[in-house]
Amino acid sequence: MKLSEEIMVPAAEGNEAVHGKKGMFVAGQYHDNATKGARAIMKLVRAKFNEVHLGIWKSLPMAGQVANSPAIDQVLSFQWLKRAKVGRTVFRNCIAAQEGALNAAELFRKGQTEADVKCRRCHAARESVQHILSGCPVYRTGLMLERHNNVVNSLHATFSRRFGLPRIAPNQPVPAVMENDSAKIYYDVRLFTRNVRATLQGDDNATRYEGLRHDRPDLVVFDKTTGKIHIVEVCVAWYDNLVNQENIKYHKYATNSEVEDVQVLANPKTRTHGYNVRALMGELYGKEFKAGVSVTPIVIGTCGEVLPNIIERMGELNIKGKSALELLDKMQLGAIHGSDRLIRAHLSLSR
């Protein structure tokens, strides 16, 4: 419907004949006050303005890829943008990354050789926006790890408040173990379970048994009030890789913690079952924590994108309603600020 068709200010005679009232109708709602009517009109104009520009954005083949992605939640993925809690530089860099408008070598490859489009940091892969934000191995143990920890720390702070544990200042390292009468929280701690993995060691190639290959989740929450153990694994990934990463993070601890190449866990056809952390933790703590062990992957896009089930995932951790939205906001901001630092660090290098 056109904007002019949604605003009706009939003549006095016709208005009284049809409606029995004098005033204006905006989007089917009657207003007898000029100020309220003007506000309703401006609200309608802004909505139409946004609708038109969103359509233009989605029609662009490069810039509209994120806006057209069916995998992500288009409302929650931009919650951080609505709340306007970032500076203009952070906003500009993250939106440019989503639109593929960063000064990446691959975007300007016309007439260049293959060597000219190599990443200016690792000099191994093609320098695309995706590679800069989620693939460059040089940043993996530095800025990418810092971004990842920003998200984990937000989760840890939420659990600490819930269980009455001491607050950790932002500039202080998070303790590996925190405990009181209500809960115990492991932060990036290796879980010791019984040795189940057979390996050949020594000169005689004797068979020996070791622990699981993947036994160090980001957070493990022992909830003493409900008798349940929550294993939480966080990942910050490129928006079109979120589903794969969620599958990997879940099945790495819930299905097979022995597999060497975790990429096989993303596909049901290549996924295999084996000893896993969830089963062995249930075996070890089953008598004390009778509610069982759950594995919850939390995946956030490099620019704040989230999957449609993100609220459901937080619900598995008993984080619901307003608390879930507030935590999501903090996790998105942690990922976005981390990506902004990564972008600025990378673009400061000369080719």
Structure notes:
The protein is built from eleven helices and ten strands. The relative contact order is 0.13. The protein is α+β, with helices and mostly antiparallel strands and 351 residues long. The chain starts with a helix and ends with a helix. It folds into two domains: 3-59, no CATH class; 147-337, no CATH class. It is 39% helix and 15% strand. The strands form three sheets. Strands 4-5-8-9-10 form a five-stranded mixed sheet, sandwiched between helices. Helix 7 runs antiparallel to helix 11.
SSE layout:
Elements: H1 3-6, E1 7-8, H2 12-18, E2 24-26, E3 29-31, H3 34-59, H4 79-83, H5 88-98, H6 129-135, H7 143-163, E4 177-179, E5 183-187, E6 197-201, E7 206-210, E8 219-223, E9 228-237, H8 242-254, H9 277-285, E10 292-301, H10 310-316, H11 321-347
Parallel strand pairs: 9-10
Antiparallel strand pairs: 1-2, 2-3, 4-5, 5-8, 6-7, 8-9
In short:
Helix content is 39%, strand content 15%. It is of the alpha+beta class and 351 residues long.
| Total beta-strand segments | 10
SSE run: HEHEEHHHHHEEEEEEHHEHH
Q: Based on Cα principal axes, name the global outline.
A: globular
The helix tally amounts to: 11
Q: Which class do the helix and strand fractions yield?
A: alpha+beta
The CA-CA distance between the termini, in Å, is 51 Å
What is the beta-strand fraction?
Answer: 5-15%
How big is the Rg?
A: 26 Å
User: How many strands, which pairing sense, and closed or not: the largest β-sheet?
Assistant: 5 strands, mixed
Number of separate structural domains:
2
Tell me, rounded to a whole number, the average pLDDT. Answer: 86
Stretches where pLDDT falls below 50 for ≥5 residues?
11-18
Strand order of the largest sheet: 4-5-8-9-10
Helix percentage range:
25-40%
Protein name: Reverse transcriptase
